[in-house]
Each structure stands twice: as structure tokens, then as C-alpha cells.
Amino acid sequence: MAEIRGVVFDLGGVVVEWDPMHLYRNVFRGEEAKAADFLAHICTPAWNEKQDAGRPLDEAAAELVARHPEWEAEIRAYYDRWIEMIGGPVPGTREVMAELKAAGVRLFALSNWSAETFPRIAERFEELAMFEQIVLSGEHGCVKPEARLFRIAIERFAVPVRELVFVDDSLRNVAGAEAVGLRALLFRDAAKLRSDLAALGLPLGA
To answer: pTM of the prediction?
Structure first.
């Protein structure tokens, strides 16, 4: 296998903790079941993914309020209070990134993320400044695991695909990466990531 020269990280769930339940536990005053039901049936992952693909946030909220006017306040909270969905850095990932960077391994990011919400955290996490380039789905009108987004990122990074490895916490995104020829790792936690990358020959300590 070719030597790996670059690691491509997903962001949410790998570098930065993002979970709508952080917000909706507050919206529903700690009623976990109500919050989970709302996110399963009203502000669903499929609805959110359309914003990750570039749909304007105002348009998305208005469309959903028109369908569910009884939930208007809760729907509008999704983006009005979006920052409350963000936790801290994913434990241990920054340390892995820092070791890779110190060893001369190039770091990139490829994330399903709205181009409107990303600026709200761009200066908040020092981890984000460690990437040479960040490709966001919301800037390109397509999302992982679509091959088009992977190809856009590979072209932007200008590193041969055989010299990259992709890391994501979604199995379908890992499969999408592999479909375009990327080596890919499923992220569970930073300790497992460290051992998986070391097994590929990257310079990481135990």
C-alpha cells in the first residue's frame, strides 16, 4: 500500500461533539422522551440533511412550520438556538491530530455541515485551525455518502487518493469513501482511532 500522507476527518462526532438532544432536553425541560420523539418525527435527521446540502435555514424552518404550526416555537429553536447543540471537543481527537501534524502528516476535514451554521463555531475550536482545508457539504450542494462530494474534496486536497485515509463515525459514509477508492476508518473513540491509524503505519504513540 502507498504511504499515507494525509488524514481526512469528519467533524461532527469525530472532532466536535454535536447532538440536537443537548438543545431539546432544555426545550422540553428535561423530558427526554418528548425531545427524542420531536427529533425523530418533526426536526428529523433527513430534514437536517437538506440544510447540510445547502438549503437555506430560513426556508427550511418556514417549510416545516407550515406543515407543523403547532410546533413553531420548537422548530424555530433548531437554528435560532443551534449553538446549544454543540458540546466540547470529542475527547482525545485533538491529541491524535497534534501528533500527526507534528510528524508532517497533512490534516483535512470533510463534513456534512450547513455553510450557515459552521461560521458560528469556526473560531471556537482550536482543532479546526489545524486543518489545511475544510470542505463542507453545504458549500457544494451535496452530502456524504454521495460520490460527488468525496471527489470534490479529493480534488481540492490535491493528494493522490491512495495516500489519504478518511475517518468518519457513520458507517454509510465510510462505505461511500471506500466506493471512490479511499481507505476509510469507522470512528468509535480516539483510542481506537489511534490504534487504527498506527496499524496503517502512521507515526502515533500508544
So the answer is: 0.95
